[in-house]
Amino acid sequence: MGHAHELKKPVKNQKRVTISRIAELAGVSKATASLVLNGRSDEYRVAEETRERVLAIAREQHYQPSIHARALSSGRSYTLGLVIPDLMNFGFAYTARELETLCREAGLQLLIACTDDNSAQEQMVVDALIQRQVDGLLVASSALSDQLYQKINQSLPVVQLDRHIGESTLPMVISDACQATAQVTQMLARHSPDEIYYFGGQLKLSPSRHRLAGYELGLKRAGITPPDHWIQHKDFQPRSGYDMMAELCNQLGRPPKALFTGSFTLLEGVLRYLQQHQLMEANIYLGSFDDHDLLDCLPLRIDSIAQDCPALAFHAFSLIQQLIAEQTPAQNAQVLAPRIRWRNPASIRLLNEDRS
């Protein structure tokens, strides 16, 4: 009998199967095996029988090409860097997932880094991605200037994703937040023309500015000039939505008649406040930028704006691939229309009346 505490021998790591080993087993030169395994057998007229023998042995040996060798021969790392504020944000998480799928299908690796909308942290994660020799950067930046990215863009492509840095001329793919927000705000004005509040994030960020511009445009189209106290800003965290709602309800002595929130995260805070204070059945008209299927399950019927995250990912991926290949894109800046999800029965009725 063996001892209960007998030490097991450590398992040796199996050595990686090399092209030389495949060539030896197939009875061909290393050069021939390399041509076959790199898909160049037709170009150099390698016999079909030889090609099939090399590929069969490669399958038997579970051969995997070295990404390092591939990178050395091509001058590429086959990785992309994605810089976003927060993976807890549904829109960024959805877009990141779509980008990861596109990269995987193209044989690329996506490296994701989060900034928490902190400029020092953004600089740090961008530097780390560059040190890992990514082939390009997709960035949702919180910067006020594109100076850093213009410098980076001299050596590797940078594409702005979902956010536009000031007046930057760097390639970008963003949503047309202004027009969609204007439409939802116009509808809120039809429900409650005398009281339509707005909760937004940091005005230094382009999404905040674009969504606020849409709110103001919607009220202008409705013939309404908002007093200053209707518009409130903090950041895009759920806690800020909660705090702004608590403060507003305390001031009014009741929930507002109509409210537009500049993000789903702000709406989350608003809803948490309403739920905790038994106000989910209150007579309030809500609209929000960003969307989630959970909104279909609430007693409050909230009209929301759904960004086309798959389209954002697809166009950003296509754009950076063209830039990496040193091709001139047909469009350097793409602005995608989001979709409005009308849920409030009163909104749907008004829309049907407009169409008839």
From TrEMBL:
<dbReference type="GO" id="GO:0003677">
    <property type="term" value="F:DNA binding"/>
</dbReference>
<feature type="domain" description="HTH lacI-type">
    <location>
        <begin position="17"/>
        <end position="74"/>
    </location>
</feature>
<dbReference type="InterPro" id="IPR012781">
    <property type="entry name" value="Fruct_sucro_rep"/>
</dbReference>
<dbReference type="Pfam" id="PF00532">
    <property type="entry name" value="Peripla_BP_1"/>
</dbReference>
<dbReference type="InterPro" id="IPR028082">
    <property type="entry name" value="Peripla_BP_I"/>
</dbReference>
<keyword id="KW-0010">Activator</keyword>
<dbReference type="Pfam" id="PF00356">
    <property type="entry name" value="LacI"/>
</dbReference>
<keyword id="KW-0805">Transcription regulation</keyword>
<keyword id="KW-0804">Transcription</keyword>
<dbReference type="InterPro" id="IPR001761">
    <property type="entry name" value="Peripla_BP/Lac1_sug-bd_dom"/>
</dbReference>
<protein>
    <submittedName>
        <fullName>LacI family DNA-binding transcriptional regulator</fullName>
    </submittedName>
</protein>
<keyword id="KW-0238">DNA-binding</keyword>
<dbReference type="InterPro" id="IPR000843">
    <property type="entry name" value="HTH_LacI"/>
</dbReference>
<keyword id="KW-0678">Repressor</keyword>
<dbReference type="InterPro" id="IPR010982">
    <property type="entry name" value="Lambda_DNA-bd_dom_sf"/>
</dbReference>
